[in-house]
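Before relying on records like the one below, remember that each one covers exactly one chain. Contacts with other chains, cofactors or solvent are not represented anywhere in the record.
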Amino acid sequence: MNRNRQRCAWVFGAAMAVATMGTAHGAEKEMLSASEILELVSGNTLSGVFGAENTRYAQRNHRSGITVVNIEGLPARLIPWFVKEPASYCEDWADDGVLCYQIGRDTNSGTYFFQRADGSTSELTVEEGAQPFTFK
């Protein structure tokens, strides 16, 4: 069980780390503030793909500070999330540590993205409220 938990955390963490797809050429990036991140993710569903295999994930960020993370092919997990100053979205994956990202918006398309400390990004879809986890 612990091995599965570690694998799940590693897969998601690695996914964000490997999120190498940059935003579109010529796109104008606008990084969100801590209060904007909190407003964007709290109570909403986030989804996207990560890694070389484009593994899909979806997560429901409850206002209580818990997110239900569903990575395609793995059991759903409950992970604490929080926003820290100056402007980072963070998840506590227990034994695998706390993973933090900035969230930005492409001002041309209105799409959102996660950005790691190394500058790599991955597209982020945000849907209002708790949406069903379906990978079709």
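Strands lie at 29-31, 45-50, 55-61, 66-71, 77-84, 88-92, 98-106, 112-115, 121-127.
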